[in-house]
Design goal:
This protein has about 350 residues and is an alpha/beta fold. It is about 40% helix and about 20% strand. Bound molecules: nicotinamide-adenine-dinucleotide (NAD) and thymidine-5'-diphospho-beta-D-xylose. Nicotinamide-adenine-dinucleotide binds near residues 36 and 62.
Length: about 350
């Protein structure tokens, strides 16, 4: 049994990771440490709740003493760090919490991991650390880091720190840098869920700038399978890019969602551009493909259809987010338990 600390496991990608892992294997014991910020939702983990190899702990990765206590209590040997403030627009409104959680938080995890001499430290990073591409070219693992937003600069700082711990202390680290994820349980402030929910509610769809910024989309389970593979077989000290070679301008995705829902394109509203808005991201994932044999399994057209259907079928999930009720779930589950 591997005792793994998964941080940020109540968020979008982390919860999908835990549900997927606990559904498919029984050799991992997962401690999910999550602060339950606005983005953390324990309702995402209903499929894993009560499983014997799963334990949720509410806590902040910046809290040194508490992180130390968790390592000791659960004999943690592995860390997979998903925890982060993750929304670019919020980082533009206020950057402090981004540097606190994403940089200081990673530092606390690294220092604790060093003291406990853990066997692997896995940093979940993002393609945004590479900055913005022009109309051609792809991000490779050797593309220089050139982040443009407070969010991406905090993720880049964390990546550099992780590599410094590898070079200085010989800590067994790995990093993945993935492109834009989509799928179930994504918080409704991100492009795809926001556009689905606004369309269903007959609300305007805010398109930043000319709507021609390009993102490279990957289904969340494909990302998580890559994480599992890198966790098991990735070479220590290495970075692996993860992407499904599925570039698309925002406007194209929005129109596709409207079509699928039978709604009018009149809902589209062009609004002021995001400051410093990166124009294009696109990932070269040949390293993980050639070295570890990973490849994306989901076809965009099918997985986006499934995703839209998921939001249609799980209206109460996102309505409880919009009403704020989801934040009471933790107390119902853990605090009021007799
Ligand atoms: P998310 O915002 O949905 O979830 C983040 C989770 O981290 C939440 O549950 C939140 O409560 C928790 N958290 C935040 N600060 C914390 C702290 N200080 N201590 C403990 N927990 C804390 O994010 P996501 O979209 O699931 O992204 C997960 C990770 O993957 C992030 O590191 C992000 O940078 C990276 N990533 C995301 C994408 C994407 O498309 N969403 C793509 C590539 C990489
Ligand atoms: O209302 C909107 N209108 C709009 O045009 C929103 C929320 C977004 N956009 C545009 C901005 C981007 O070009 O859509 C694109 C996607 O935006 P987001 O969903 O905010 O994602 P992005 O900024 O690309 O970052 C995401 O991918 C990389 C995640 O949020 C990050 O955590 C991850 O690292």
């Amino acid at each position: 049994m591997k005792n793994i600390l998964v941080t940020g496991g109540a968020g979008f990608i982390g919860s999908n990771f835990i549900n997927y892992i606990l559904d498919t294997r029984d050799d991992y014991f997962i401690v999910n440490l999550d602060k339950l910020t606005y983005a953390g939702n324990l309702e995402n983990l209903k499929p894993s709740e009560g499983k014997k190899n799963y334990q949720f702990v509410k806590g902040d990765i910046t809290n040194n003493e508490f992180v130390n206590y968790i390592f000791e209590k659960f004999n943690i040997k592995y860390v997979i760090n998903f925890a982060a403030e993750s929304h670019v627009d919020r980082s533009i409104l206020g950057s402090e919490i981004f540097y606190r959680s994403n940089v200081i938080g990673t530092n606390v995890l690294l220092e604790t991991s060093r003291r406990f001499e853990i066997e692997k430290f896995f940093q979940i990073s993002t393609d945004e650390v590479y900055g913005s591409l022009g109309s051609t070219g792809l991000f490779t693992e050797t593309t220089p880091l050139s982040p443009n937003s407070p969010y991406s600069s905090s993720k880049a700082a964390a990546d550099m720190m992780v590599m410094a711990f590898y070079h200085t202390y010989g800590m067994p680290v790995v990093i993945t840098r993935c492109s834009n994820n989509y799928g179930p349980y994504q918080f409704p402030e991100k492009l795809i869920p926001l556009m689905i929910i606004n369309s269903l509610n007959g609300k305007k769809l805010p398109v930043y700038g000319d709507g021609m910024n390009v993102r490279d989309w990957i289904y969340v389970i494909d990302h998580n399978k890559a994480v599992e593979l890198v966790f098991e077989k990735g070479r220590v000290g290495e970075v692996y890019n993860v992407g499904a070679s599925n570039e698309m301008p925002n406007l194209q995705i929005i129109k596709l969602i409207l079509k699928k829902l039978g709604k009018s394109e009149d809902l589209i509203e062009f609004v002021k551009d995001r400051p410093g808005h990166d124009r294009r991201y696109a990932i070269d994932s040949s390293k993980i493909q050639n070295e570890l044999g990973w490849k994306p399994g989901f076809i965009f057209e099918e997985a986006i259809e499934y995703t839209v259907d998921w939001y249609l079928k799980n209206k109460s999930w996102w309505e409880r987010i919009i009403s704020g009720e989801y934040q009471k779930y933790y107390y119902d589950l853990y605090q009021n338990r007799k």
